[in-house]
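Quick log. Single chain, no ligands specified.
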Amino acid sequence: MPNPTLPPGAPEQLATARLRNVDTFLAGRGLDREGLDALMRAKTGQARHLLLTSSPVHGIANSTSDIDFIRVEDHAVEGARMATQLFEQGQHLEAVSYGPDEVAAALADLSAAAALDPVGATEAHRGWDKGHELRRKYLERLVNGVALDGTSPYLEHLPALARVWKWSSLHTAVRHVFHLRLAEATGETRGSAGYAFGALLHLADAALSHAGDVYSNRKWYLLRWQRFLDSGAADGTPLAQLAERFAALDRLLRAALRGEAAGPLAPEFGAVLEEVFAIAGEGHAPALRLEPAADATQLPFLPGAAMLVGRTAQFLTGELPKGPVAVTRDTAPPGEAADVLSASRSGALRLLPA
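-> predicted structure:
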C-alpha cells in the first residue's frame, strides 16, 4: 500500500502537536485534561479511552466549538449509537460510545480498504456507513483523537485513513470538474461556479490527506490548507507547487462570481486536477465511469424528446449511455451536455471512480 507523505516526524511529532492544541484549547475554556477526565467519568461512566476529537485536536477550534468525545469502553456497546449531550460549567460536551471489538473490527476494515486499488478504496469510503455502526465521521475522529491521558492511541492508523480519504476526495474533485465542464457547456453561470468551488475544496482536501492531514468537516478545508502552508509542512515537498495553483483557481472563481471571468473555468480546473493527480494519484489519471442507475427507465415522450423516470422524472432531448462509459479530460461527454448534467444531478446517471 503506498503511504501518504506524512509530515516530518509523524506520528510522534504530530501527537505532540495535537496534545499541545488540546491543552491550549482547554486552557482557553478554563479547563484541563485531569478535571475534564473526572467530569466525563462521573457523568458517563468508566471507559478505556476518553478521546477528545474534532476541531480542538486540529488547532482550529473557536469560541463556539463544542467539546466532542469518543468513549471506547471495556465492554461491548449494543444497538444504534446516539451521542450523549452534556452541559457543564457553561460548556456543551458531546460523547458517543463504542466497544473495543467494534473499534478493532472497524480499524481492521480500514486497513483492508487502504490496501485496495483507488477504485476499491473510494468505494469502501462511499459505502462505509452502510456496514459499520462506527460511522465514517467517527472513524476519522477516533484515529485523530487525543485521549485525556495525553496519548493518541489510534494515530498509528493515520496512513490508512489518509489514503482512503485521499481517494474519496480525488474522486469527488473529478466529479466536480466534470460537472463544471457540463455546466459551462450548457451556459450555466452560478451552477458552474458552484462546481468549481466544490472542486477547489476537494482538491485541497486531497492534497492535505496525501500529507496525512485528515479531517472530514468541509467547512475547514481551505483554512486547513492555508495553515498547512503557513506551518511550512509543504516546504520541500511536491505539494508546495500547489500553493499558487490553488490561489490562482480561487482568483478565477472569485472573478466568475463577480461576472468578470475572462473565459471558461473548466480548462484551468482540469489542468490543476491533473497536477494534483501527478503528485498524489499513485500513477493514475483522473477519470470517471458513467453508468445508468439500475432504477432509471427512459420512455418515449414526443418526437425528439424522452422522459427519464427514476427517483425523479425529467425530459431529455438526446440519448444517454445504456452501459458504462469511461470519461477523461480529453473525451467528450456521452450525449448532450444538458442531458448528461441533468441525469447526473437526478441520480439517473451515476458517476463512479474509474
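The chain has a mean pLDDT of 90.
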